[in-house]
Design a protein that fits this description.
single chain; alpha/beta; Rossmann fold; 6-stranded mixed β-sheet; 5-stranded antiparallel β-sheet; globular
């Protein structure tokens, strides 16, 4: 069998390639397992109660609504251009795009007329991004995109940095230490190497450079809004994280073995937000700051959405059906633990609403309400999704672990 036969299942192609040409990097393995023909992201929808994970957009349209509020703020900061391009990379099944544009229509006015929203997803369209807007004024945004990029894995062995390759031994896929395949891996890890013990494992995402270059091609004047799970490099590469951040998810269950269920389980690794800053800065963007999804959504107005639910005339069950996923979006031990980063290019203005801890004058009480639509585009968390707790605290202060007088 040809080792690169696109018709072969991902695991067989990987095995054939290794047996023909020798060990491959984990990034090459992950690329094939996730994005190759028959790979994880080429298969039917995974974002469902029957799939492997759920996301903020799939939880409740309030997430997309508040992204629309932030995009309107960006538009205002850019001087209210006649055309405002929002380019979503990693748009998946289009849920976030629909929720953003639907709520923008509810907001109405000149912003809605200016908004031109374009979604792109590699799993649907392949890697070719020709046809996407370029050199525009607006925003490039993504939600849980970067943590799905293929990563190189490494191990510290006798105080030396070694890369973990994927090999075949006795018919089994195994890790095989070897020389580092790219000097950039060493450049990323070397500042923290003196503190890392032997046996320490970690990951390096080299795809961030190409991503930053792609973003720079799209935006001449505007913002980059990135929402993902991760930490700064100093947090990622510390001794207590000795097993790294690579995770495999199969049918809502965390798996410790990336070599099982190849093509049928999700592989993800925490994002190095220090590297995100570095690569976007190199591409001409200014880092504005980083916050949590909890704080981001609170500043934009999720508290007002929650407070307004009882006054919408909905049955008690519908109020709860909307309340639970909104809370899950903001819980620090739920989706609220995600990080939100802001970068800008060619703009000097006040701090965007979602990043402004001092208050921007934004009155969230004036926002139109948002509730779950009568379709299956969002999860029914109140219906008992097994991956989420159904016990929620009663007040916002309790939710955020604050006193009633807390911010």
């Amino acid at each position: 069998m040809n080792p690169f036969d696109a018709n072969a299942e991902p695991e067989r192609r990987i095995r054939n390639r290794i047996e023909s040409n020798g060990p491959i990097t984990f990034a090459e393995f992950m690329e094939e397992a996730m994005y190759g023909d028959g790979g994880y992201y080429t298969r039917p929808r995974r974002i469902s109660p029957e799939g492997d994970y759920f996301t903020s957009p799939s939880s409740h349209p309030a997430f997309g609504a508040l992204i629309a509020v932030q995009l309107r703020d960006f538009w205002e900061l850019l001087g209210e251009p006649e055309v405002f391009d929002a380019v979503e990379l990693g748009s998946g099944d289009g849920t976030l795009a629909r929720d953003v544009t639907d709520y923008a229509a509810t907001l109405g006015g000149a912003f809605y007329n200016a908004l031109r929203y374009t979604g792109f997803d590699r799993a649907v369209s392949g890697p070719d991004q020709t046809g996407l807007p370029s050199g525009v004024t607006g925003c490039v945004l993504s939600n849980e995109l970067l943590d799905a990029f293929p990563v190189h894995r490494f191990i510290i062995d006798d105080r030396e940095l070694r890369e973990l390759y994927v090999a075949v031994e006795d018919g089994i896929l195994i890790e095989s230490p070897g020389p580092v395949s790219d000097p950039e891996i060493g450049d990323r890890v070397s500042p923290y190497l003196p503190d890392l013990p032997d046996g320490y494992r970690g990951e390096v995402n080299l795809g961030l450079r190409a991503w930053a270059d792609s973003v720079a091609e799209k935006i001449d004047h505007g913002y980059v809004l990135t929402i993902d799970y991760g930490e700064t490099a100093r947090e990622l590469y510390r001794p207590s994280r000795s097993e790294g951040s690579l995770r495999a998810y199969y049918r809502h269950t965390l798996s410790g073995n990336p070599f099982q269920h190849i093509g049928d389980q999700d592989l993800t690794a925490h994002v190095d937000f220090s590297a995100v800053d570095t690569e976007l800065s190199r591409a001409g963007f200014k880092p504005l700051g980083i916050t949590t999804q909890t704080a981001f959504l609170d500043r934009l107005g999720i508290r007002s959405f929650l407070a307004g639910l009882p006054g919408l005339g909905l049955p008690a069950g519908e109020v709860e059906k909307n309340r639970m996923p909104m809370l899950w979006l903001a819980r620090p031990d739920g989706l609220g633990r995600f990080k939100v980063t802001f970068h800008s290019r060619g703009i000097e203005a006040r701090t965007p609403i979602g990043l402004d801890s001092r208050g921007s004058g934004h009155d969230a009480s004036l926002l139109p309400p948002v509730t779950l639509p009568d379709d299956d585009t969002h999860f029914d968390l109140a219906g008992g999704y097994t991956g989420a707790s159904t016990e929620f605290t009663a007040t916002w202060a309790e939710l955020l672990g604050q006193d009633d007088e807390g911010e």
